[in-house]
C-alpha cells in the first residue's frame, strides 16, 4: 500500500511541471465548436475537450454548431476558443468566401492539430455498368449528400473538374442509398468516413461498384482542391478486392489566434501526447498523430501549437506559416 502511494506521488510530481507554467491570460473556461449532435465532430470534439480540461485544470466542453464553415467564423471572432474544420472550408474562409460572412477573411482562426481524414468515394449499382468516372453518362443523376455538407460543397466541383456532366441531387446518405437502389439516382458521391454505413447496407442488399479514381484523376483533383491522395482499404467493404484509389480532406482542430501561447501549447500536449486516450474517446482519433502536422497547407499555425510540433514532432514549420511570424 505504501509503495502504491509513493508511486502515485511520483506520478503526480511528474505531471505537475507540464501544467504548472505561466498561466497569464488563460481563460477560466473554454468551448469547442463541433457539429451536429450525433455526428463525428460532436463526439470527437467532446472527447478532446474533456481531455484538455482534465489535464489543464480548466473547465471546458463541446458546443453543437453548423460544422466546419460556422466553426471558422466562431473561432475567428472569438465566440468560441476552439473549433474543428476541414481544409476546404478553411481555405474558403481565409479567402473571404465563407457563405456565413462573405467578404470577411477569417485570418484569426489558427491551425492547432491534425484530427482525421474525410475520404471522397463514388458508388454505383453494378447493374448500371458504370465502372469508372469516365463511364458516368452525361446528365447522370448524382447524389451529393446533405445540402451544404463538405461532400455537397466540393464533390460537384471535383466532378466538373473531371469533365462529368450531371444533375445534382441532395439528401441524407441513407435516403440517397435508397434512391440509388430504386433507380432514381445513377451515382452517389460520398464524403464521409469509411466504411460509410449507407454503402455497407447497399452491398448487403444488392451488387454495387465502388469506383476508384485513376492516378491522373487523383492528381488532377489534388492539384485543384485542398485534398490529399488516399486509399480506401480493401477490408472496408466486402465489394472491394483491392484498395481503391481516392482523395481525402484533412480535418484540423483550430484555435483563436489571440489565445495565450502557453494555453494552446498545453491543449495540444494533452491531445497529441496520448493517442490511446484519444482513440478511447473517439475511434476517428486513430489518425490524430503528430506526424500528420504537415497535412495543414492552408492555415497559419497558432504559435503555441507550432512550438509543440517543433519540439515534439520535429516539425519544420516556416516562420511565415505561424501567426504573427
Automatic annotation (TrEMBL):
It holds the Pfam family NMT1_3. Residues 1-20 form the signal peptide. Keywords: Receptor, Signal. PANTHER family: SLL1037 PROTEIN. This is TRAP transporter solute receptor, TAXI family.
Amino acid at each position: 500500500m505504501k509503495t502504491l502511494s509513493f508511486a502515485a506521488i511520483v506520478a503526480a510530481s511528474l505531471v505537475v511541471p507540464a501544467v504548472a507554467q505561466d498561466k497569464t491570460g488563460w481563460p477560466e473556461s473554454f468551448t469547442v465548436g463541433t457539429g451536429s449532435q450525433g455526428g463525428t465532430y460532436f463526439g470527437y470534439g467532446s472527447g478532446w475537450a474533456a481531455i484538455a480540461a482534465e489535464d489543464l485544470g480548466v473547465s471546458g466542453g463541446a458546443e453543437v454548431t453548423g460544422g466546419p464553415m460556422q466553426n471558422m467564423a466562431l473561432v475567428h471572432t472569438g465566440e468560441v476558443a476552439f473549433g474543428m474544420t476541414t481544409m476546404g472550408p478553411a481555405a474558403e474562409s481565409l479567402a473571404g468566401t465563407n457563405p456565413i460572412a462573405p467578404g470577411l477573411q477569417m485570418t484569426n482562426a489558427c491551425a492547432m492539430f491534425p484530427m482525421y481524414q474525410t475520404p471522397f468515394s463514388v458508388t454505383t449499382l453494378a447493374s448500371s455498368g458504370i465502372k469508372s468516372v469516365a463511364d458516368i453518362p452525361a446528365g447522370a443523376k448524382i447524389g451529393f449528400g446533405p445540402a451544404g455538407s463538405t461532400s455537397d460543397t466540393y464533390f460537384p466541383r471535383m466532378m466538373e473538374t473531371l469533365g462529368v456532366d450531371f444533375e445534382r441531387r441532395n439528401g441524407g446518405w441513407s435516403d440517397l442509398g435508397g434512391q440509388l437502389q430504386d433507380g432514381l439516382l445513377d451515382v452517389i458521391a460520398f464524403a464521409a468516413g469509411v466504411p460509410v454505413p449507407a454503402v455497407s447496407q447497399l452491398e448487403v442488399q444488392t451488387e454495387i461498384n465502388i469506383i476508384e479514381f485513376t492516378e491522373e484523376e487523383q492528381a488532377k483533383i489534388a492539384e485543384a482542391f485542398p485534398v490529399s491522395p488516399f486509399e480506401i482499404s480493401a477490408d472496408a467493404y466486402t465489394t472491394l478486392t483491392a484498395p481503391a484509389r481516392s482523395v481525402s480532406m484533412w480535418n484540423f482542430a483550430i484555435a483563436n489566434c489571440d489565445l495565450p501561447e502557453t494555453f494552446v501549447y498545453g491543449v495540444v500536449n494533452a491531445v497529441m501526447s496520448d493517442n490511446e486516450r484519444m482513440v478511447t474517446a473517439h475511434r476517428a482519433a486513430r489518425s490524430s498523430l503528430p506526424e500528420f502536422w504537415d497535412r495543414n497547407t492552408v492555415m497559419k499555425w497558432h504559435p503555441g501549437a507550432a512550438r509543440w510540433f517543433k519540439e515534439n514532432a520535429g516539425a519544420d514549420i516556416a516562420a511565415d506559416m505561424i501567426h504573427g511570424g
